[in-house]
Amino acid sequence: MNFPRRNRSCAAVVALASASLWFGGIAAGQAAGPQARIVAAVRNDQLVTLHGNVHPMARPANDRGLLPDQRPVTKMRMLLQRSAAQEAALQRLMALQLDPGSPKFHAWLTPQEFGQQFGPADSDVQAVKEWLSSQGFTDLKVNNGKTLIEFNGTAGAIRNAFHTEMHWLTVEYAGAEDTCGAGTGGGWGGWTA
Question: pTM for this one?
Answer without folding.
Answer: 0.70
